[in-house]
Design brief:
Layout: H1 2-18, H2 23-36, H3 43-59, H4 65-86
Helix pairs in contact: 1-2, 1-4, 2-3, 3-4
């Protein structure tokens, strides 16, 4: 599972660095990366915390369409990871 978290962190970093976005959204994505890299939390808790931030981003009206699509893709990956941890 640690590998999946690392991949998510790298993907969010790439999106944060490559897509033009408002500062608030960039800060929220940075928070997601920090949440994924926390050492003292269970993977499920990390994923739930990141999902909350990403869902909050998607409710913002200032989100560029391309970024909104990328955020939904990441949410889908987190849901897939979460399903594999519950099996």
């Amino acid at each position: 599972m640690e590998e999946g978290m690392q991949e998510l962190s790298e993907e969010i970093t790439y999106i944060k660095d490559s897509i033009k976005m408002p500062r608030k959204i960039r800060e929220d994505l940075t928070q997601c990366i920090e949440l994924l890299n926390e050492k003292d939390k269970q993977d499920t808790e990390k994923m739930n915390n990141v999902m909350l931030v990403l869902e909050e981003i998607n409710t913002m009206k200032i989100v560029p369409p391309m970024l909104r699509t990328e955020v939904w893709n990441i949410i889908g990956k987190i849901e897939s990871l979460d399903k594999t941890t519950k099996v």
